[in-house]
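During data preparation, a discrete fold description was generated, as reproduced here:
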Amino acid sequence: MPHDDALPLTPEAAVPEGRPPEPARPPELAPAPVRTAGQARTALARLLDAAGHPGGQVLADAQLAVTELVANALRHGGGLTCFDARIGRCGTELVVEVDDRDDRHPVVLPLHDRDPATAGGRGWAIVQALATTCQVVPLPAGGKRIRVTFAL
């Protein structure tokens, strides 16, 4: 039997007295599945905004990198199978993960050996230049996860 001073197990119980409860998250801000590079860029902007981060250069760098990663998953990786972005390490980094169906790691071609007039082949070098860390992890059922981080 509960004591008289026990708090009810309701969402209102977590709200300090005199303060209204937080409003419900609007449906348009609820996470949506990412299927395109544009949707990934929008997801990053919303995530940083929701975290109270001003965006700026971090957002620009992360959006360029994620554009390359998603485009490569769609073009070379057999399709995008998962996209995740979150704030990690006590709010000090942005973590982005892009999964695809291909087991092969991204191709690293030295930029100085490339013909400047040739299109393509620079995406992974761009991602590596922009991100704080880059990691390629094989997935148990096949495919790979590319995890990149950006310092906030």
Q: What stands out?
A: The chain is about 30% helix and 20% strand. The radius of gyration is 20 Å.
